[in-house]
Design goal:
Elements lengths: L7 E7 L3 E6 L25 E8 L5 H9 L15 H10 L2 E6 L3 E6 L5 E2 L6 E2 L4 H4 L2 E7 L4 E6 L4 E5 L13 E2 L9 E3 L1
Parallel strand pairs: 2-6
Antiparallel strand pairs: 1-2, 1-3, 2-7, 4-5, 4-8, 5-11, 9-10, 9-12
């Protein structure tokens, strides 16, 4: 359960590496606790939703988001000139949110929330993290800032804390990087 404003978006992430973002006002208010609810995401096979996040909506069309992502302040290589003004890039940077995704085999990534396009609820979603075979199932996916610190816990009672400023921001569909070197029969269970 999460509280949201009419101009917020909902991000659902699944164990098999999919995510869907839809407008918060697509979820209607229910009259009683016995109401059945609405479908947020269509799941395949034994997949399951592992996280619900509330993201703040930014007034930007897809072309502006794409242009911003090519020239974002955290971006290493930039080619060409942005079509957006310097003021608009600064405004988008100030309102930018990041999604941290962590997998069971110790891999994870930090991606811009601008890469998660808004769709209608009930769809199968888009790729949140690739290479589930190497990474293992998704353990957690939630909004985070570069100033946050991440604590990972394994099923063998090992614990690690790392600053998110040490992670570079990478694409939504990428496979991620190693966050925690786990043993052969060890898995991250919580982030």
């Amino acid at each position: 359960v999460a509280l949201l404003e009419p101009d917020d978006d909902v991000l659902l992430a699944s164990r098999q590496g999919k995510a869907i973002r839809f407008a918060g006002d697509d979820v209607r208010e229910f009259q009683s606790r016995t109401s059945t609810g609405v479908r947020g995401m269509t799941l395949k096979g034994d997949d399951e939703v592992i996280s619900l996040s509330i993201l703040h909506r930014v007034d930007a069309d897809p072309e502006q988001r794409e242009d911003y992502l090519r020239f974002a302040p955290w971006k290493g290589e930039r080619e060409g000139e942005p079509q957006l003004s310097i003021e608009r890039i600064a405004e988008l940077a100030e309102r930018e949110e990041f999604i941290l995704t962590v997998c069971a085999n110790g891999y994870g990534k930090l991606s811009s929330a601008y890469e998660y396009r808004r769709t209608g609820r009930g769809g199968q979603g888009i790729t949140n993290i690739d290479n589930i075979g190497r990474n293992g199932p998704v353990v957690a996916s939630f909004p985070a800032t570069r100033a946050d610190q991440l604590m990972l816990v394994t099923d063998q009672a090992k614990l690690i804390r790392l600053p998110l400023e040490s992670l570079r921001v990478i694409g939504r569909g990428s496979a991620g990087v190693r966050l925690f070197n786990v043993a052969d029969n060890e898995h991250v269970v919580s982030a």
